[in-house]
Specification:
single chain, about 170 residues, alpha+beta, five-stranded antiparallel sheet, 5 strands
Length: about 170
């Protein structure tokens, strides 16, 4: 696998495509995150701080199984808790989306007030032309990995309009 050339970390005008990928990914996992947030935050924090990755994997798997096909969206067996003075702790779960020609390594950040997605790497299998993989193709791959259609309320203005929804 090779890294997609347009993926960098952080947001700037040079990597707008990564921001769009993050937005598309975030929209597609909102229902998973909703189920994940039903678990007790203190239990999740305990699993993360004590490196109980098997337990975390079970929680993530049970949150994913209704929405995505088997093992297309999974816990990457790494997590952490961020602490800042005067700010509530955030849980950071390393996740992977793998389906078809793409594998996306990303962080799911669960804060007390907001939730975020940060893509670390987009890997494509050899043979996929570099110029032929963009936001539309990524959205189509995510759509094909889902068990249930993406609810319309979860789409954003950045979601590619030419992607046919279920």
């Amino acid at each position: 696998m090779r890294q997609h050339p347009d993926t960098n970390t952080g947001f700037s005008s040079e990597n707008y495509e990564v921001y769009v990928f993050e937005e598309i990914l975030a929209c597609n996992i909102k229902d998973v995150v909703g189920d994940l947030c039903l678990a007790d935050a203190e239990i999740i924090m305990s699993y993360v701080t004590n490196q109980l990755h098997g337990n975390m994997d079970e929680i993530v798997t049970s949150s994913v199984e209704l929405y995505f096909k088997d093992r297309t969206l999974s816990y990457a067996r790494a997590a952490g808790v961020t602490f800042e003075l005067g700010v509530p702790a955030s849980i950071v779960l390393n996740m992977e989306f793998a389906h078809g020609p793409v594998s996306v390594l990303f962080e799911l950040v669960l804060g007390s007030r907001d939730i975020g997605v940060h893509i670390n790497k987009v890997l494509l299998i050899e043979g996929v032309p570099e110029g032929q993989f963009g936001a539309v193709e990524f959205a189509q791959i995510l759509r094909s990995a889902r068990r249930t259609p993406l609810p319309d309320r979860y789409t954003s203005a950045l979601y590619p309009p030419d992607v046919i929804r279920h």
